[in-house]
């Protein structure tokens, strides 16, 4: 059986899925037609129902919950992993200035969890421009935006480029809720047979566990898609975003997601959740 699978070229995703798509584990007769995209493109594909299985942001998942269910494995949650709000040092912006609605903010996508957190922390910052996450630093340096909301490996590179952190929105979330921050998850189309969905969940868990047990096995695959990232940045990226919640959400992981969605619904940032979120009870 062949299923379409979408995930990002970032090291955390290639680390997780390497064993699965390269048959380093028993895939139980499954084949995967893989596509690589940034998370906002994957969000848009999920809105169109294009993929059987896909990575997407939890913010976007709230909008496609009727069509997709969240798998228990493969998610990115954690402490100290949140998006950063940054600016150019030469145009330093203080926190008190963030009430200024004219400030232009470069965001990695409307439906990213990063943008959701920005809306909670700084609701007045409504002048937003969607930019591919890897180009936000350049936009700041070119002064085409005043603020940048960065995710992924840019957490490790912004300072050396002369950019300044205003706020770590992950820390903001942790102090506000005491929960891990839910960034992205792996979802599967509800139309698929229940046994197929359960097998896929098990295979992804096996793939994550293989990656942890054989940390150098995926090195070539990760480097192939990590563009110009150094080995040090790749290693930090994986350590930051792949953890016990990636193996399985567990009660604490689910609690974090439930708190996120509850707060979002209270603020009317997402539609009402009509279906059970999780594939597994």
How would you briefly describe this protein structure?
The chain is of the alpha/beta class.
Question: What can you see in these coordinates?
Answer:
The chain has 281 residues and is an alpha/beta fold. It folds into 2 domains: 2-78 and 181-266, Periplasmic binding protein-like II (D-Maltodextrin-Binding Protein, domain 2, 3-Layer(aba) Sandwich); 84-177, Periplasmic binding protein-like II (D-Maltodextrin-Binding Protein, domain 2). The chain is 38% helix and 19% strand. It is built from 11 helices and 11 strands. The protein has helices spanning 11-21, 39-47, 58-61, 113-121, 136-141, 169-177, 194-213, 219-225, 231-241, 244-247, 250-266, and strands spanning 2-7, 31-36, 53-57, 68-70, 76-78, 84-88, 105-107, 128-130, 147-150, 163-168, 181-189. Strands 1, 2, 3, 4, 5 and 11 form a 6-stranded mixed β-sheet that branches. Strands 8-7-9-6-10 form a 5-stranded mixed β-sheet. Helix 4 (113-121) links the parallel strand 7 and strand 8 (128-130). Helix 1 (11-21) packs across helix 7 (194-213). The longest helix has 20 residues, at 194-213. The radius of gyration is 18 Å and the shape is globular. The protein starts with a strand and ends in a 15-residue tail after the last helix. The model has no long low-confidence stretch (mean pLDDT 91).
């Amino acid at each position: 059986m062949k299923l379409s699978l979408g995930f990002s070229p970032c090291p955390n995703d290639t680390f997780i899925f390497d064993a699965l798509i390269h048959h380093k584990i028993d895939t139980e007769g499954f084949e995967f037609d893989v596509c690589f995209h940034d998370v906002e493109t994957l969000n848009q594909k999920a809105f169109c129902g294009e993929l059987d299985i896909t990575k997407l942001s939890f913010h976007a998942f709230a909008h496609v919950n009727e069509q997709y269910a969240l798998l228990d494995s493969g998610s990115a949650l954690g402490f100290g992993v949140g998006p950063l709000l940054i600016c150019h040092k030469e145009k330093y912006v203080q926190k008190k200035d963030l009430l200024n609605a004219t400030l232009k903010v470069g965001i990695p996508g409307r439906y990213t969890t990063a943008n959701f957190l920005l809306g909670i922390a700084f609701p007045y910052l409504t002048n937003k421009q969607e930019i591919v996450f890897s180009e936000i630093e350049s936009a700041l340096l070119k002064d085409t935006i005043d603020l940048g909301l960065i995710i992924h490996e840019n957490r490790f590179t912004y300072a050396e480029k002369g950019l300044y952190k205003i706020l770590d929105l992950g820390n903001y979330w942790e102090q506000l809720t005491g929960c891990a921050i839910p960034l992205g998850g792996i979802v599967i189309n509800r139309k698929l047979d229940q046994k197929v969905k359960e097998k896929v969940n098990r295979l992804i868990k096996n793939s994550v566990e293989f990656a942890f047990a054989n940390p150098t096995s995926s090195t070539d695959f990760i480097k192939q898609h990590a563009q110009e990232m150094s080995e040090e940045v790749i290693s930090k990226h994986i350590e930051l975003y792949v953890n016990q919640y990636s193996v399985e959400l567990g009660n604490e992981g689910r609690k974090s997601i439930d708190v996120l969605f509850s707060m979002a619904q209270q603020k009317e940032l997402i539609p009402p959740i009509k279906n059970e979120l999780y594939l597994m009870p």
